[in-house]
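Let's study a protein:

___
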Amino acid sequence: MIRIKTSEDIAKLREGGKRHARLLAELAEKVQVGVSTNDINELAKMRIAELGDQSAFFNYQPYGASRPYPSHVCISINDEVVHGIPNEKPRFFADGDVVKIDLGLTHQGMITDAAVTKVLGTPTEAVATLVRVTEASLAAGIAAAQAGSTVGDVSAAIQAVIKPHKYGIIRELAGHGVGYAVHEEPYVPNYGTCGRGAKLKPGMVIAIEPMVTLGSRDIVLNPDGYTYRTLDGSLAVHVEHTILITEHGPEILTAL
């Protein structure tokens, strides 16, 4: 069931989204050559505590997972797509790494979700284009998230930006409703057909998150039970915002 947020919920989400955006930007800025993944996790843990908020991911156990998620932020590098665990086997960032930082924040019981991709050093033309197209697909998906439209309209808008480049659009993972829980209805794929799926209504809150690869769309789950990576080893990009559907258009809650 899709749950419409109340005005009180939305006020909390707006404040949480502002905090989220500032923290995610700080984490991304600290991702530098020679810094470890666990350094970023520890920074996230410290900053979230200072805010008086909680990590929405730490100790969260999604359906099908054998254990709770053990970190405060997800960090995925190169062929890792999402849900990389930064603190169990820490790695040091290197020049050329394509780093995905995914943060879930709980503020006064309401959850926002957002992710950015950062390339260390000077990216190749192929990587720069992949990042640019993925970000453009997110913008297109957000623009399509209008009251009265459907989830399929959002999905089709994302796909239309990516398809001409023949990149892999991951199908097993998708955007989703968010707010009261990390994952709520509706499911928001990054491919689809206009006019299909749930109708978007004012008060709905969704996370839109294109996940795109330079190669095949096929993915595999690591033995850690969380980290998804591309089956062919190709680089992946992931970007995400939490969006509020309003009568006047989509509102990006996690934007700076």
In short: The longest strand covers residues 98-107. Residues 7-252 form a domain with the Creatine Amidinohydrolase fold (CATH 3.90.230.10). The CA atoms of residues 11 and 186 lie 21 Å apart.
